[in-house]
Amino acid sequence: GQSLEQPSEVTAVEGAIVQINCTYQTSGFYGLSWYQQHDGGAPTFLSYNALDGLEETGRFSSFLSRSDSYGYLLLQELQMKDSASYFCAVRGRSGANNLFFGTGTRLTVIP
Amino acid sequence: EPEVTQTPSHQVTQMGQEVILRCVPISNHLYFYWYRQILGQKVEFLVSFYNNEISEKSEIFDDQFSVERPDGSNFTLKIRSTKLEDSAMYFCASSGTSGGAYEQYFGPGTRLTVT
Fold it and tell me: What is the pLDDT of residues A19-43, one digit of tens each?
């Protein structure tokens, strides 16, 4: 089966940088995705890592280390609108197209 | 920009009643999914659908649940006899290709309240 662990809450100051970690245990690994969810909203796709290293998309970057079964999402130049829950997710198994989500990290950005 | 739509936004039903949740996926997408999220918890996979049949389902998706694509645009989730524990936000999602399953587009959700 799959297990993904994230910190439950993170608080950071507007303009700062924050890192949200995700450690995973899976029977097979086919990439790590990150989704953002505002309160009352739908999850929206942020980034995906299939290989080790850093992927950058604007203010957001995502990192993966397959040997450590670990990834993180890095948010730079934090804005108040970044306050949301962030979920890491993996595919269910080889050839499957369902996502298995982590426990989620609630980010609060303060002035 | 294309988006996934869901109706209704909120459904209140009594325990034991049947409910049908409706979704219109993005038009050129091939893979469709239902997920649920109990308040304050993580998003949980229910079922995926491709080529007019179920391709994956979770242990949550028991005989009380069914999915259907009745026409070329709609995708429905039916719960035959609702239980109190079915109260949750139900999200429909779609993706373009199997290889792109990591990037799924979610609808705004239907909040199901079972009383």
Answer: 999 999 988 788 899 999 999 899 9
In three-state secondary structure terms, B99 is helix
Are the beta carbons of B19 and B13 closer than 8 angstroms? yes
B3: chain A residues, CB-CB within 8 Å = none
Residues of A in contact with B42 (CB under 8 A): 87, 101-104
Q: Do B56 and A98 touch (CB under 8 A)?
A: yes
Both tokens of residue B38? 């109990």
Task: Give how far A65 is from chain B: nearest CA, Å.
Answer: 18
Nearest to A99 among B45, B98, B107 (CB): B45
C-alpha–C-alpha distance, residues B112 and B74, integer Å: 19
Question: What pLDDT was estimated at residue A28?
Answer: 79
A30-44 burial, b if ≥16 CB within 10 A, otherwise e?
bbbbbbbbeeeebbe
Beta strands A9-13; A105-110: pairing state: parallel
Using alpha carbons only, give the angle A96, A99, A100 rounded to the nearest 5 degrees: 115
Q: Do A41 and B108 touch (CB under 8 A)?
A: yes
Instruction: With CB atoms and an 8 Å threshold, state whether A92 touches B56.
Output: yes
pLDDT in tens, B43-92: 999 999 998 999 999 999 999 999 999 887 899 999 999 999 999 999 99
Q: Look at B58 and A98 and tell me if their CB atoms are within 8 Å.
A: yes
Asked if A23 and A39 count as a contact pair (C-beta separation under 8 A), the reply is no
